[in-house]
Design brief:
This protein is an alpha+beta fold. The protein starts with a helix and ends in a 13-residue tail after the last strand. The strands form 2 sheets. The protein has a 6-stranded mixed sheet with strand order 1-2-5-8-7-6. Strands 3-4-9 form a 3-stranded antiparallel sheet, with no helix packed on it. The chain is built from 4 helices and 9 strands. The chain has one domain.
């Protein structure tokens, strides 16, 4: 579900940039590892908005959800409860030969998420072709993005771990992405009636 969630954001942001009429295209937004800036393989992320997943954390408030599910025919299945994730996304404007363009695209990113920060299959038509809309988990997908402000110390540590070369960027916290395996752990009949025998025999 992580890939589907990021693909939805990439498609919607790309469509927004393409709609601005300033030379931008849908392909200007890519999923990629921004640490490639320090490698020789930079063609795939050059002159692009690069979306990089830098952290994933479990949403602790929803950690103790029920793992029991009632099945058809009066049988009960037991599955591990789904994991709800918060994803930290780094949006980097990588225009090495055009700092002004990078700043302009950074502004576009912030404007886009200021105008729309909740994403579902229903309100994200540009991502429908890339998603399996038959899957009920994808149909129910609901993503909420909020800007995540870091301290200068955190910024220094982040870019140090990514190779040390800082470019115009903004971080967003995306919640909630649900990861769920439908593996059945146990199965049995549902207890629908109990009987207590209080009689005394001699």
């Amino acid at each position: 579900m992580i890939f589907e969630a990021l693909s939805m954001i990439r498609s919607e942001l790309g469509a927004y940039i393409a709609s601005l009429g300033d030379g931008g295209a849908q392909t200007d937004v890519v999923l990629g590892n921004i640490s490639l800036l320090e490698s020789n393989d930079t063609d795939s992320i050059k002159d692009r908005v690069v979306i990089t997943l830098v952290n994933a954390e479990e949403e602790s408030a929803l950690k103790n959800s029920n793992g029991f599910h009632r099945a058809n025919g009066g049988r009960m299945t037991v599955e591990n409860p789904p994991i709800y994730l918060n994803l930290y996304l780094l949006f980097s404007a990588n225009w090495p030969d055009g700092y002004d363009t990078a700043i302009h695209r950074l502004s576009n990113i912030i404007e886009f998420f200021q105008g729309k920060n909740i994403f579902t299959v229903q309100n994200s038509p540009n991502s429908v072709d890339t998603l399996n809309t038959i899957d009920p988990d994808i149909v129910d997908l609901r993503l909420i993005l909020n800007m995540y402000t870091m301290t200068f110390e955190q910024i220094n540590h982040l870019w140090g771990s990514l190779g040390g070369k800082q470019i115009p960027f903004v971080m967003y916290k995306m919640r909630l992405v649900k990861e769920h395996s439908s593996k059945i752990l146990r199965e049995g009949r549902v207890i629908e009636r109990t009987q207590t025998n209080t009689g005394v025999t001699e």
